[in-house]
Amino acid sequence: MEKAEIGLIGLGTMGSNLALNIAEKGHRIAVFNRTPEKTDAFVANAGTLRDRLVPCKSLAELAEAIRPPRPVIIMVLAGQPVDDQIAALRGELAANDIIIDAGNANFHDTVRRFKELEGSGLTFIGMGVSGGEEGARHGPSIMVGGTEASWKRVEKVITAISAKFKGEPCAAWLGPDGAGHFVKTIHNGIEYADMQMIAEIYGVLRDGLGMGPKEIAPVFAGWNKGRLDSYLIEITAKALEADDPKTGRPVVDIILDRAGQKGTGKWSVIEAQQLGIPATAIEAAVAARVLSSLKSEREAAEKAYGKLSVTTFSGARDEVLKDLELALLAGKIAAYAQGFAVMSGASKEFNWNLPMPTIARIWRAGCIIRSQMLDTMAEAFGKGGAEVNLLMAPAFIDMMKQAHPSLRRVVARAAEAGLPVPALSSALAYFDAYRQGRGTSNLIQAQRDFFGAHGFERIDAAGAFHGPWGGTQG
Ligand SMILES: NC(=O)C1=CN([C@@H]2O[C@H](COP(=O)(O)OP(=O)(O)OC[C@H]3O[C@@H](n4cnc5c(N)ncnc54)[C@H](OP(=O)(O)O)[C@@H]3O)[C@@H](O)[C@H]2O)C=CC1
Ligand SMILES: O=C(CO)[C@H](O)[C@H](O)COP(=O)(O)O
């Protein structure tokens, strides 16, 4: 039988679609899944692509089915399952073969796996993939980490299956070992912030303005034609339009207000904290998901405290909607600025030399956070001016100057109405703190010196000083 050019392990949502994408681009692919019935069903339902798929019932069969040197993509749940698959594969592969972990790995695991495979003769690649089911099937955004030489070996197939933005592949080699998975993690952190801010605006429209899903949907659809044009706004409008077949009610009204998470958002926040880079909007979004899961506690608290009955969103509807649109724009810019700043910090810390313009470029299509604004970001990073912080790029200074008054009004009015907008308000506080030449940490310095003799710096002389605190220190 003709050998396959590539192999794939894990025929779940992402793996099955990625395999079909690879097959569609003309590559013969050997596939394996832990549960063999899924492999049979997958191949049986592959239609015209069936002839390019080689179903395998063991890893030995998979290795045998691929022409050496063998590239094998692992697309299983992140964590121990990836280690297990690598361990099992090592016995079946030979020098020069390539293992590509395409799941949402924690980049620390990826770095460890690189070390563990050193000297084995096998090549390892840690590859972040974004785009969900549709993206995997028709073109995801792909973030690759490993040696440049290993990227060259897989570049052709990876760029072929990736999304294209005006003909340019949304796939790139971003740096050594964990670089690709780190960038994917921060992509997801930004995704959390983006989704949370959209949900907060939905909350204002629903609870502050009393609008139903069918009234809110066209608002988002309209915004999707402007500067907020993005995949997440597009699917939000569509989700709000959909009806539940069982009850006939808008489907969002019958979905429980409790969102799960798999780890990438939390890892973004942990890494931001480790690197000492503020990522407040992402932190707020992760915390909001955790709070969402405390459903029964929230219900009890609502009984204990009662609902606020005031609504301060009663002005002219058009003006309020304009404010909400601009608030979302400003919040989104701040969240992206934080995400890029975290990547910049990691790039320095780990000597990755992450290419920010390339990252913005490969996020313009295929991935979940794709948006028109990413094209402007790619331009800003390309031209220079965004290296210190995206908020300092001229195009974004202009946008923020126009949009931050709306963010301010929305956050203030939401606070008065008792509507939680944690990601938007964190974004606003970040922006205000970032643009404040003289802040309030002079007092923090005084306090630290007062209780712990930590010393402080003066505005009028270099060096460390102590305050005249007398004998009252703690
Ligand atoms: N869904 C999405 O939108 C995206 C997901 N990802 C990432 O892609 C990876 C796969 O996700 P997804 O396809 O959604 O997941 P699914 O739950 O749809 O599929 C999981 C796959 O992993 C396999 N698997 C699970 N545990 C083991 C194990 N212990 N040993 C061997 N195989 C195992 C399953 O095999 P079996 O059929 O036998 O259970 C199945 O093939 C994850 O890392 C995920 O975070 C990345 C981008 C987007
Ligand atoms: O990587 C993805 C999208 O880019 C996956 O859909 C991921 O599962 C999203 O994260 P979470 O499940 O924590 O919401």
What structural category do the secondary elements indicate? alpha/beta
Small molecules in complex: NADPH dihydro-nicotinamide-adenine-dinucleotide phosphate, ribulose-5-phosphate
Largest sheet: 8 strands, mixed
Helicity range? 55-70%
How many structural domains does the protein architecture include? 3
CATH superfamily annotation of the largest domain: N-(1-d-carboxylethyl)-l-norvaline Dehydrogenase, domain 2
Q: How far is the first residue's CA from the last residue's CA?
A: 80 Å
Low-confidence stretches: none
Question: Rough shape?
Answer: globular
Biggest β-sheet: strands ordered side by side in the sheet: 3-2-1-4-5-6-7-10
CATH-scheme architecture of the largest domain: Orthogonal Bundle
Order of helices and strands: EHEHEHEHEHEHEHEEEHHHHHHHHHHHHH
Secondary structure: elements and pairs:
Blueprint: E1 6-9, H1 13-24, E2 29-32, H2 36-44, E3 53-56, H3 59-65, E4 71-74, H4 80-90, E5 98-101, H5 107-117, E6 123-130, H6 132-138, E7 141-145, H7 148-161, E8 164-165, E9 168-169, E10 171-175, H8 179-208, H9 213-223, H10 231-241, H11 251-254, H12 264-275, H13 280-293, H14 295-305, H15 317-349, H16 356-362, H17 372-383, H18 394-417, H19 422-434, H20 441-452
Parallel strand pairs: 1-2, 1-4, 2-3, 4-5, 5-6, 7-10
Antiparallel strand pairs: 6-7, 8-9
Helix pairs in contact: 1-6, 8-12, 8-13, 8-15, 9-10, 12-13, 12-15, 13-19, 15-18, 15-19, 16-17
Residues 104, 130, 132, 188, 191, 261-262, 264-265, 368 line the site of ribulose-5-phosphate.
